[in-house]
């Protein structure tokens, strides 16, 4: 592959990531509504730890586990922020 082909593949993956991030955010909003109805806090440190542990164990590389955790921390932070905005805080 030449550089342009590689960049095209990166662009394709970026579009797929965008779709997946928004799909994940939509699901987080659904969970936020359920949490609001049940009076459950938005922040669930146990759930986040399980996600990080699962992603570390599933990580084939080349990204280091710490990089994977940082990426997922950001995704989860944004999902949590969205939940709080849409459910007006819990």
From TrEMBL:
Keywords: Isomerase. Signal peptide: none annotated. The keyword Isomerase applies. Coiled coil: none annotated. Its EC number is 5.4.99.5. The keyword rRNA-binding does not apply. Pfam families: CM_2 (PF01817). It comes from the Bacteria. This is chorismate mutase. Residues 1-87 form the Chorismate mutase domain.
